[in-house]
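Potassium-transporting ATPase KdpC subunit, pasting as requested.
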Amino acid sequence: MKHLPSSIRRHLAAVRAVLVLTVVTGVVYPLAVTGVAQVLFRHQANGSLVERNGRVVGSSLVGQSFTDSSGAPIPRYFQSRPAAAGHAYDTTATGASNLGPEDVVDTLPAPGRTGRRSLLTQVCARSLAVGRLEGVSGARPFCAPGGVGAVLRVFPAAGAATRAVSVNQACPATPFVPRYQGVRVECARPGEDYSAGRTVPVRGAVTRVAVPPDAVTAGASGLDPHISVAYAVLQAPRVARARGLTVERVLDLVRRHTVSPWLGYVGRPVVNVLELNLALDGE
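Structure tokens follow.
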């Protein structure tokens, strides 16, 4: 080996380093971590699976839908928060929508063009649907009564508005406000380009919001297994009616399955939806 050219010796040393590191980091380390996890944290290492009558029904770490075959919420179950992971709670497509607070203008479907709902319209539509399901008002600021974003595109000239379009309400819809700065508000014509106008979200007169934020927004992972205590309390009367239980009994189960903030102050109290629904099934 000493008589080999220095360039070859360096290459052989590099090959040995690759082989050693491959064995250490690709075999020894994973086996050691897996072994420790299986001994000390077996339940967590295997996915924190939840069983009922000997059958795995889910994981306490992964959310799931409680809907029927048509996608409608099952009244006797608490509903999870919306999911941005693929279709409903798809563990193979975890991730957020990557839409931000300035995403307020829809792309209306038109011949040769697929429509897209803005984040604002998604929130408005979810709030309206939750309100109808729970028997409360689904109204919230910046939302039109029909469950779309209350947004205008205003075309000014000489400092004054000359045209105003409710860009998220396709014709022949009636705009959520009849006039803006003295100008009649038009409905949007699919396919027409309104990008030259100034975007004006309209807050509206809503002062009290009954539907909590986590009922209308998706978690960053798209697989959040928890909901807020406020959202659980909102759903309690519906679940109680569907199951023939008292609201007090359902709220008692909500309290039992409320998870306190980590270390007592990091985050907020949340409710694990799967575990709560399983407890209800055991009543």
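Note for the archive: The first strand starts at residue 49 and ends at 52.
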